[in-house]
Write a structure and sequence with these properties.
Blueprint lengths: L2 H4 L7 E3 L8 E3 L9 E4 L12 H6 L4 E4 L10 E4 L3 H12 L8 E6 L4 H14 L4 E4 L3 E4 L2 E4 L7 H13 L4 E5 L2 H5 L10 E4 L7 H4 L2 H14 L11 E5 L5 H7 L3 E6 L6 E9 L2 E9 L2 E7 L4 H16 L4 H10 L8 E3 L6 E5 L4 H13 L5 E5 L9 H12 L2 E4 L9 H9 L9 E4 L3 H11 L5 E5 L6 E4 L2 E4 L2 H8 L4
Parallel strand pairs: 2-3, 3-4, 4-5, 6-10, 6-11, 7-10, 11-12, 12-13, 13-14, 18-22, 19-20, 19-22, 20-21
Antiparallel strand pairs: 1-5, 7-8, 8-9, 14-15, 15-16, 17-18, 23-24
Helix pairs in contact: 3-5, 4-10, 4-11, 12-13, 13-14, 15-16
Length: 492
């Protein structure tokens, strides 16, 4: 693409150098520069891209897009704009020729349930013959091709590149998790969503958003924009969990048709006659007062019924039948690290789950308690360099819903693991709590939980779920809860 075309969408910029050069790629990381690339300088939380412009030039950059005056060692085209973060999504869309406008895009946001909801939607659509792609916490998937996920919602350039690859692969529908960070940082600016889903809202990422109100306002932006300035000839839908206390706020900002879901029979889509076991849940799925069908999903817990209802609502927006929806829901065998039962050949069960928020922990342990095990042994920690307020809350919830808890490390990052553990313990002090073990080494903590387990117990290992690493200071080391369990039990 010619530079002149790339920057034609910008306003208020100045340029020095040639406009007629060919641009072969765009990036904000000088390490990714190839010959003919445009380098965009972004001021980040840890580093300022403007400090690496000469590195970018030495690697073959053909042009620089910056918001600051920069000193360069070679003659090169420089475009100066007021705000590089603001123009980044526009530049990315222009370079990749607006790929999201040529597919259906479903966005799922909320504190919990995003990943499982996207997996349910994917299964329903694929079983009905649609070609789908997924962008989310666990991975990015283009048909059968799997790409490891870096962020739940990628940066603007990577996101458009993924859309472009999906389009080339014949993908018709993209199902993506939309994180609050992605909304706040404008990673999704300019993307036209056809369907937006709100799962729930509980305190999370307050280290970033500061208050629950600001966190909520960020999520609301997704629903405020749907249906505005549409370029696609598609009917837009907003899907909202009517049982969530803040659902009315989300309904009120929408300018498109709304489908509500929940266990409340006033919802458009709801469930009744719920029965759960360790191997899944049965319920009657209603899509109106006179249309319903019996469904059995392979995921336990009431919260997973909510995820199934959200996916059902998305499928209805697609015009799929009740039979097609049932077939898709029942075909999802599991979701990595989401109430994932590990095959152990023991007389107790081990569950791995990603629950890393107070509400997520409460939902998962409540689901475990509803299964009426002999006892619940919970292993968990809290992430370092993240919201500290949730640590005592998670300690309290774990102690209220477990018979034995072992507090360990999650991803401590740059914090001292024992300091994190002490903050977790603060939430337990006033409770006539269960027995407590403190073992900062996560592998030893899991080993101890398994040693303590008796017949018909549930060992709940929470916090990391699908993750295959642990972040210790500035080092990333391999660590997979699932693999560790199997090693301890001698299965690998």
């Amino acid at each position: 693409m010619k530079l002149q075309k790339l920057i034609s969408v910008l306003e208020g910029f100045t340029i020095s150098g040639r406009k007629d050069i060919e641009i072969n790629g765009i990036t904000t990381d000088s390490n990714n520069i190839k010959s003919g690339f445009a380098f965009i300088g972004i001021k980040g939380a840890k580093a300022d891209g403007h400090d690496f412009v000469n590195d970018a030039i030495s690697r073959g950059a053909a042009a620089l897009i910056v918001e600051k005056d920069v000193e360069v060692l070679e003659d090169i085209t420089i475009i100066k704009v007021p705000d590089t973060k603001k123009i980044l999504p526009l530049i990315a869309d222009t370079f990749y020729d607006y790929p999201s406008n040529k597919m259906n895009v479903i966005g799922v946001t909320g504190t919990n349930g995003k990943t499982t909801t996207t997996y349910f939607i994917d299964r329903i659509l694929r079983k009905a013959g649609h070609k789908t792609g997924i962008i989310g916490t666990i991975n990015y998937r283009i048909g059968e091709r799997i790409i490891p996920a870096v962020n739940t919602t990628p940066d603007p350039i990577q996101l458009r590149a993924l859309f472009s690859q999906m389009l080339e692969a014949g993908i018709e529908t993209v199902i993506m998790e939309v994180s609050s960070h992605a909304i706040a940082q404008q990673r999704i600016a300019g993307i036209e969503f056809d369907t937006c889903i709100f799962t729930n809202l509980t305190p999370e990422h307050l280290d970033y958003h500061e208050t629950l109100e600001k966190y909520q306002e960020t999520k609301l932006q997704l629903f405020e924009q749907i249906g505005k300035n549409s370029k696609k000839d598609t009917v837009k839908k907003a899907i909202i969990n009517i049982d969530d206390p803040v659902s009315r706020r989300f309904i009120d900002v929408c300018h498109v048709d709304i489908i509500t879901y929940g266990l409340n029979t006033n919802a458009s889509v709801y469930a009744t006659d719920i029965r759960s076991t360790l191997n899944g849940s049965c319920f009657r799925l209603h899509i109106s007062t006179d249309k319903s069908i019996e469904v059995k999903i392979n995921l336990a817990g009431k919260y997973n019924i909510y995820n199934a209802l959200a996916a059902t609502s998305a499928a209805l927006a697609f015009g799929l039948s009740l039979d097609e929806i049932k077939s898709g829901l029942e075909s999802l065998k599991s979701v990595p690290g989401r109430f994932e039962k590990i095959t152990t050949n023991t007389d107790f069960n081990v569950i791995i789950d990603y629950a890393h928020t107070p509400d997520g922990m409460k939902q998962v342990l409540s689901a475990a308690r509803a299964l009426k095990p002999n006892g619940i042994i919970t292993v968990f920690g809290c992430g370092g360099d993240r919201d500290r307020l949730k640590r005592p809350q998670m300690g309290r919830i774990a102690s209220e819903l477990s018979d034995y808890i072992i507090i360990t490390s999650d991803n401590p990052r740059t914090e001292d693991p024992m300091n994190i553990i002490e903050e977790i313990i603060h939430g337990i002090k006033d409770i006539g709590s269960p027995a407590i073990g403190i073992m900062p080494d996560r592998k030893n903590a899991i080993k101890r939980a398994i040693e303590l387990a008796k017949k018909n117990d549930l060992v709940m290992i929470l916090g990391k779920g699908h993750e295959t690493y642990q972040v210790l200071k500035d080092t990333i080391v391999p660590f997979d809860d699932r693999q560790v369990v199997k090693e301890i039990l001698g299965f690998v």
